[in-house]
Amino acid sequence: MKRISDSAFKVLDILERFPNSISGEVISNKLGITRSAVWKNIKELRLMGYDIQSSQKEGYRLVHSSSKLLPYEVHKKLHTEIIGKRIRYFEHTPSTNSMGKQILSEGDPAKIHGTVIIAEEQTGGVGRLGRAWISPSGGIWITILLKPKVPIDHVFMITMAASVAIARAIRKEFGLGALIKWPNDIFIGKKKIGGLLLELSAEADVVHYCLLGIGIDVNNPIKDFAADLQRDITSISTEVGHDVDRASFLARILKEFENRFQLVESGEYDAITQEWKSLSATLENRVLIHTMKNSFEGEAIDIDEFGALIVKKDTGKLERVIAGDCIHR
Ligand code: BTN
What we know:
alpha+beta; Arc Repressor Mutant, subunit A; BirA Bifunctional Protein, domain 2; SH3 type barrels; 3 domains; 5-stranded antiparallel β-sheet; 14 strands; about 35% helix; binds biotin
């Protein structure tokens, strides 16, 4: 795990406060360090992705903040009370969910509540139903660690709250018409842009902790995916036509999620369900369902109080789907 050293932070702080460039000499005087120490810090910041111009005449100028999802960049934009106040950042990790399990096994889950684990790249990302989740750099691959005060039979509401939060964040930040495909895939038009994976540790009816994994294709080029995947997925940059500020987007997601997580904790399930329904791409659609047991078609007419999809078959019989794949026809 890389982090910016304290001295490089001080240099960064000065560069941010003097956007029109500042000489190495002035920086070294302000911080009481040598000019070669300033230079070392500049090199470190460049390695962390900060675009810093230097010229003999004018000194240093911060041209662009780092495009990495550094905790410092997320915190600058974050307006939450708990979620994301602590961030663990990794350049590479197999999976932020498995990293979350490691962090939870080493610490007190109560103190870890709200921690967000960020990876620039995952080498073994996991999707729903044990599928591989390809996670190159440029996407948002995170896990939120939660110790929720929610009864075990309503923990699924946390995933519903998170999918609503992501769809809302995409709409507010980029003006794109994001919708939710049952159970919790985020779609733009007919293409998937993100997904969620909730894992929990529970005993009897007590939830010890949840790991809410979120994956969103943001600035990662879709052309790098296998041809069959390219047909079915999109990314934010593909939709808007340019790379976007991932730190602002993530800060927005965390805020939207925190607001709704509070509703879940105070038992206001109906508010979440109604918002989920209003953003659903699945309801009122003809769907093909594959479960562990069987496959069938019908019309998706509702979700029940446990998040199960209610499908009306052509015979008129209602089927309740708790888990499985849902294909829009
Ligand atoms: C899905 O299949 O739609 C769920 C995808 C969830 C992917 C995210 S990326 C961050 C976190 N770490 C993982 O290994 N998976 C989740």
